[in-house]
């Protein structure tokens, strides 16, 4: 028993004497490589962003370089450990070829996410900007600063609005004015406000419609097109200018109103039927 | 006149669409008033007159001094111009406003 233990100890000692230094060096290279790769990827993304490269492209470039660096680290580490690299290289080549072949064959059948990194999307009740996508989930930052990780299967099974699929969006400026106001003047003011804004596109042209006549007001709808990126700010500013422009021109906005008519109480009140009868006659009314 | 000609005429003669806006102001340097712009003329102009007017007002508030004399850092005659250098009306009052006017 003791002899056996001593023999094992001697074997271990011999192994450590022969390969210990190399193994430690290999492990050191591997650990340093694994720790450095994320920082290198971040650095690449930062540099590419400085040169104006799109976020999605820079992320792809950084990921590819990250994978190559990882393979390089593994190869260097295994070589340092005294292992024969030729087998590892062969296996990696095989995996790469199979992966490429599979991607080419199945690409048309693979479900793809209908957005890119940097797009503003709405899925379910979540509205925000896509920061990153992986095979399993999508990282999104909402406009109030929350980071949400959404499983891709949920996105693929639900409806999704990609606000940047098309380069432009239509801005709606809906306002209501009173019946007694100058309708033509209001239309002119609203149209001029939209035309005058540099962000509003020349084509399709801004237009103003009379949307409805009800509840004691004329509902006007201004419609114009702006670039996606400018949509929200432009809409807010057009609303502000509309309010001030109408004020300046003396056009009065309509307010929600309810006219209640009060009539004298009838001598006898025998219940609902009589009330209904009075209502039908027009003696009690709410409009 | 066809519809294209009509639209061309309307675009030329009715409401004009500026390409951008700049805040224009004068600064006292060595007893002389120098005209400067924000953003600079070599930079792209602002695409919003609201932002331009708000910036003009903030510049006015930030550089205003109490004394009767115009101080060295005080900005005078602050207003907004379009990309052609023409003064534009303040959208809130529809008047040609000038902050801190100085003759």
Can you describe this structure?
The complex is a heterodimer of chains A (287) and B (103). The longest helix of chain A is centred in the first third of the chain and has 49 residues, at 2-50. Chain A has a five-stranded antiparallel beta sheet with strand order 4-3-2-1-5. A three-stranded antiparallel beta sheet of chain A has the order 6-8-7, covered by helices on one side. By secondary structure, chain A is an alpha+beta fold. Chain A has helices at residues 2-50, 55-80, 85-106, 152-157, 183-196, 231-249, 272-281; strands spanning 120-123, 126-133, 137-142, 147-151, 160-162, 168-178, 207-214, 217-227. In chain A, β1 and β2 (126-133) form a beta hairpin. Chain A has three domains: 2-109, Orthogonal Bundle (Helix Hairpins); 120-162, SH3 type barrels; 168-248, Alpha-Beta Plaits (2-Layer Sandwich), CATH 3.30.70. The termini of chain B are far apart. Chain B is an alpha+beta fold and 103 residues long. The mean pLDDT of chain B is 88. Classes of the chains: A alpha+beta (287), B alpha+beta (103). At the A-B interface, α5 and α6 of A face loops of B.
How is this fold's topology laid out?
The complex is a heterodimer of chains A (287) and B (103).
Chain A: H1 2-50, H2 55-80, H3 85-106, E1 120-123, E2 126-133, E3 137-142, E4 147-151, H4 152-157, E5 160-162, E6 168-178, H5 183-196, E7 207-214, E8 217-227, H6 231-249, H7 272-281
Antiparallel strand pairs in A: 1-2, 1-5, 2-3, 3-4, 6-8, 7-8
Chain B: H1 3-13, E1 21-29, E2 32-38, H2 49-63, E3 75-82
Antiparallel strand pairs in B: 1-2, 1-3
Alpha-beta classification of chain B: alpha+beta
Q: What characterizes the major β-sheet of chain A?
A: 5 strands, antiparallel
CATH architecture of the largest domain in chain A: Orthogonal Bundle
Shape of chain B: elongated
Query: How many angstroms does the end-to-end distance of chain A come to?
Result: 104 Å
Number of helices of chain A: 7
Question: Major sheet of chain B: size, sense and barrel closure?
Answer: 3 strands, antiparallel
Outline type of chain A = elongated
- Percent strand of chain B equals 15-25%
Q: Which range does the strand content of chain A fall in?
A: 15-25%
Report the average pLDDT across residues of chain B.
88
């Amino acid at each position: 028993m003791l002899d056996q233990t001593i023999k094992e100890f001697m074997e271990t000692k011999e192994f450590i004497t022969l390969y210990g230094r190399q193994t430690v060096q290999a492990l050191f290279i591997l650990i340093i490589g694994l720790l450095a790769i994320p920082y290198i990827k971040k650095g690449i993304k930062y540099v590419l962003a400085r040169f104006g490269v799109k976020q999605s492209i820079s992320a792809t470039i950084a990921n590819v370089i990250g994978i190559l660096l990882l393979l390089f680290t593994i190869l260097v580490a295994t070589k340092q450990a005294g292992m024969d690299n030729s087998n590892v290289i062969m296996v990696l080549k095989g995996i790469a070829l199979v992966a490429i072949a599979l991607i080419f064959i199945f690409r048309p059948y693979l479900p793809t996410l209908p957005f890119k990194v940097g797009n503003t999307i709405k899925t379910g009740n979540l509205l925000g900007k896509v920061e990153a996508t992986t095979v399993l989930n999508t990282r999104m930052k909402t406009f109030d600063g929350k980071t949400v990780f959404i499983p891709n299967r949920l996105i693929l099974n639900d409806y999704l609005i990609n606000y940047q699929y098309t380069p432009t969006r239509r801005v709606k400026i809906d306002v209501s004015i009173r019946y007694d106001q100058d309708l033509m003047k209001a239309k002119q003011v609203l149209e001029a406000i939209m035309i005058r804004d540099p962000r509003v596109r020349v084509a399709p042209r801004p237009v103003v419609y009379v949307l409805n006549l009800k509840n004691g007001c004329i509902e006007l709808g201004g419609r114009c097109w702006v670039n996606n990126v400018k949509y929200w700010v432009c809409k807010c500013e057009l609303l502000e200018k509309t309010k001030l422009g109408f004020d300046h021109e003396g056009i009065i906005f309509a307010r929600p109103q309810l006219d209640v008519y009060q009539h004298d109480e009838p001598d006898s009140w025998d219940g609902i039927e009589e009330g209904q009868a009075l209502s039908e006659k027009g003696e009690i009314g709410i409009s | 006149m066809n519809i294209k000609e009509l639209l061309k005429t309307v675009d030329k003669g009715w409401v004009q669409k500026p390409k951008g806006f700049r805040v224009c102001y004068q600064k006292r340097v060595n007893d002389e008033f120098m005209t400067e712009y924000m953003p600079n003329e070599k930079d792209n102009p602002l695409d919003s007159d609201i932002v331009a007017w708000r910036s003009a007002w903030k510049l006015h508030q930030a550089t205003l001094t109490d004394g009767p004399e115009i101080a060295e850092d005080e900005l005078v005659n602050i207003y907004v111009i379009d990309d052609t250098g023409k003064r534009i009306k303040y959208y809130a009052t529809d008047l040609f406003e000038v902050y801190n006017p100085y003759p």
